Amino acid sequence: GVTDSIGHAVSDDGRKWTDEGAVFGPATAPAWDSLLVGRPSVFHDGRQFRMWYDGRKDLPPGAPDPMAPKSATSRRFVGHATSPDGKTWTRHPEAVFGEDAGGIHVIRHGGAYLMVYESRDGTCWARSGDGLRKTASSRLKD
């Protein structure tokens, strides 16, 4: 199956890691991220850890997992969660970004949050003042 979750690992030197297991899994159905969550982008903002991740509630028709729910309108979304310690996460209940975005990376720059993501339109970017609502976006030029 494809019930992905997000794990936590620790390292003293950044080269050898100890897996501490899953710390963030899919939400309860019928939530937008009830099938899988993955590919997180995490950083500490000085107060707490913030995580953006992609998730979905179903797969497109023809996906190889015979047990997963399927839908012709299947899309990926980006979610947001916060944590005081990187282990216990509080999920923002609604997706913060759509556009079939996945494989995301978020940074803070010049007072804004910038997200690079993959989509059916190619590699794109989005800007947000608070990391929760998009204020601008565009496809990256080749």
Task: Give the SSE string.
Answer: EEEEEEEEEE
What's the multimeric state? single chain
Number of strands: 10
Shape: globular
For the biggest sheet, the summary is: 4 strands, antiparallel
- The low-pLDDT segments are none
Tally the helices: what do you get? 0
The helix content is under 10%
Placed side by side, the strands forming the largest sheet appear as 3-4-5-6
Q: Could you give a quick summary of the protein structure above?
A:
The protein is mostly beta strands and 142 residues long.
Please specify the SSE layout and strand pairing.
Blueprint: E1 6-10, E2 18-24, E3 36-44, E4 49-56, E5 77-83, E6 90-91, E7 102-109, E8 112-119, E9 122-128, E10 136-139
Antiparallel strand pairs: 1-2, 3-4, 4-5, 5-6, 7-8, 8-9, 9-10
Write up what this structure looks like.
- This protein has 142 residues and is an all-beta fold.
- It is 0% helix and 46% strand.
- The protein has strands at 6-10, 18-24, 36-44, 49-56, 77-83, 90-91, 102-109, 112-119, 122-128, 136-139.
- A hairpin with a 2-residue loop joins strand 8 and strand 9 (122-128).
- The model has no long low-confidence stretch (mean pLDDT 92).
